[in-house]
Amino acid sequence: MDAKSRPVCNLAVDGEQENSENFSQVESLNRSVDEIFIEVDQLEQKLNEVEQFYLNEKHPNAPKSGFSTKDKEREKFLANFVKRQQKAARREIDAARRKQELLCQFENIFFKITQQKWAAPFMQPVDVVGLGLHDYYEVIEKPMDFSTIKSKMEARDDTGYKNVREICADVRLVFKNAMKYNDEKDDVHVMAKSLLDKFETKWLQLLPKVDEDEKLRKEEESEMQLDMQLSQEIAHAKMARELTFELDKVDAHLDELKEMALQNCRKMSTEEKKRLGSAITRLPPEDINKALEIISQNNPTFQAIGETVEVDIDAQRGHFVEVEVLCEGHVASPDEELAK
């Protein structure tokens, strides 16, 4: 196997090449390479974010919306994105309006119950100390009264009720506490049972509207979840496109730097060529085949046919560095060559 001359990529300038101009070029190359490493690190972080998003989307434990997210629906979503945003705003307004209407209707029920002649014992918290009810907190886990309910209904922060079902549960609790603590024949027990029956009758009249509101809320939540999911997909798809563009720019920049680096390479001496050529012939069969494969991949005109193969090292330029790595340990020193 004959070896012709090739460039050795050695950016450290030596001999008569060691001048300020070449040194400046090398420093510039080093800075450019450092900048590319920083840029690649940043791109890698963005790429990891995109990959993690799609991994989570396919994860079996990931939250699922009530709607299918097939390609056809994605296309439909993209085509009507602005309309869906407007629809989402209207959904929030409609949900708030329905909630307010239900609260107003429940307040009317609550007012009628509290105006009953037997409602007095339930208007304020039970005076446990004044009435000497020493075992009250042992029997009743969660005390409740109408004044507490009213205050919570009027609250405009997180301490308020989220929906009318929560208010309904507390109204029932007022009466059930009284019935639990007092004997069936006790007046308070009788009054609580009577008021609870009246409350349940009125609640049943409101219940269909409550059920309808809850059904609409579930549908709206599914719509919102789908909108959010597809919006994230759009954002990450855009990020993926931008990453592809940025990575292409990095590849182009690397090609430019490679050309600049090759221009700063020195030529192999005749002796170095001979030693490398000799080293190639001493490679194990599997490494020789690998070396020929590397050369073929980077030089389409190269053909490894026949028992004797000629390799034009100059034609390989920077790609031949991979072959040189294979030859490490097989290159003879000048003294070893003379000894032959």
From TrEMBL:
InterPro entries: Bromodomain (IPR001487), Bromodomain-like_sf (IPR036427), NET_dom (IPR027353), NET_sf (IPR038336). Residues 26-53 form a coiled coil. Residues 114-189 form the Bromo domain. PROSITE patterns: BROMODOMAIN_2. It holds the Pfam family BET. Signal peptide: none annotated. The keyword Coiled coil applies. Keywords: Bromodomain, Coiled coil, Transcription, Transcription regulation. The keyword Transcription applies. This is Bromo domain-containing protein. It comes from Castilleja foliolosa. The lineage of its organism: Eukaryota, Viridiplantae, Streptophyta, Embryophyta, Tracheophyta.
